[in-house]
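Protein folds are increasingly written down as discrete tokens. With that in mind, we are printing a sequence and the tokens encoding its fold.
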Amino acid sequence: SIAAFAPHPTFASRKVSSSTAATMASSSDSATASSKTCPKTGNPLPNLPLPDPLLSLTPGTWAYDTMSRRVNEEIFQRTYEENEETFNSPPFAEAFERLKDL
């Protein structure tokens, strides 16, 4: 059975007028109707501009160190060691061989 939870006292005491509720509903409906979606997935696309991507091109930065050294020397090795039993199981054997060929 699903347990019922009492509303938090802060929210239980709040009253929303019917006009406010109607405005919120119509705003939500119009936002949904006017939002764009990805043609491949149907997922909503952002309405605001996206920030510039984080790049790992500047030597001496954490991002540069991660992508130029840590991924190869630490992260891949640790991931393998922590999952070695799974990687060596029959379902993963073929995929692992293809990965080693890369």
Residues 1-14, 21-33 have pLDDT under 50 and may be disordered. Residues 62-82 form the longest helix (21 residues). The CA atoms of residues 95 and 101 lie 10 Å apart.
